[in-house]
Amino acid sequence: MGVSSAAETDDAAAVDKPSSALREMRTDRPDATESPFTVDPGHFQLEMDLVSHTRDRADGDQTRESSIGAFNLRLGLSARTEVGLFIAPWTRRSQHLADGRSLVRKGFGDVGLRAKFNAWGNDGGGSAGGLIIDVTLPTAANELGNDGVQGSVLLPVSLDLGEGWEMGAMTGVDLRRDTDGSGYRPVLITSATIGHGLTDKIGVYFELTSQAGEGRHVATFDTGVTFLVNPNLQFDAGANIGVSRAADDLGIFAGVARRF
């Protein structure tokens, strides 16, 4: 089916917009709740963990994992559509097991591919919604990844609560490969986050996340701060605290988002 000339004109005008006419920069980080907003067509947005670290203790085993430079590169294709590429160039995981053994693995991580569609609210209004489709490819070294193709479908929404408050929520299903490679199991993903702008440049957020499936429940309480340097550059830092037995005890990170 052909695209109408009016739609073509709208997309061309969107691509030609000067920097001063771009939409407000919206990021998918630092919280785990993805946004329904897409990047302006013809523009890139780099969102990166400068450094992240998690630690967990369970059944006498201690696990620590550090990552440097993991990023999501987003490209706006049209007024409502973008694609993304996730790469984790270096991860180190160390385990001290209850039986006295120590294991260290490090190397390249899995690669993720994303398509995001905004259904409404990209250009303003009190709410926004969208659809995200992710595919993860088993490129990781040294058992640092999934050892199989995985995918997820996510439905993010955003609400403007007024007075500098904004709420986001997300639900979806992640198809994860069984550890024995025999098939896939669905994992239900839900999250909700609330953010507040303390000033024109500084914001804070508080978030609850849940992953239910695979015979366990992973739940976290997350919080962090953002600092908007200019309309195209933002830094952030935060912590993710495990509130269920299956979750990592603590994760901390610092990151950046830059629009080009």
Description:
The protein has 260 residues and is mostly beta strands. The protein has one helix and 15 strands, in the order αβββββββββββββββ. It has one domain (5-259): monomeric porin ompg (Porin). The chain is 4% helix and 60% strand. It has a twelve-stranded antiparallel β-barrel. Strand 9 (150-162) and strand 10 form a beta hairpin.
Task: Give the helix/strand layout.
Layout: H1 5-15, E1 44-58, E2 61-68, E3 71-76, E4 81-87, E5 90-96, E6 102-107, E7 111-120, E8 127-137, E9 150-162, E10 165-177, E11 184-197, E12 202-213, E13 216-230, E14 233-242, E15 250-259
Antiparallel strand pairs: 1-2, 1-3, 1-15, 2-5, 3-4, 4-7, 5-6, 7-8, 8-9, 9-10, 10-11, 11-12, 12-13, 13-14, 14-15
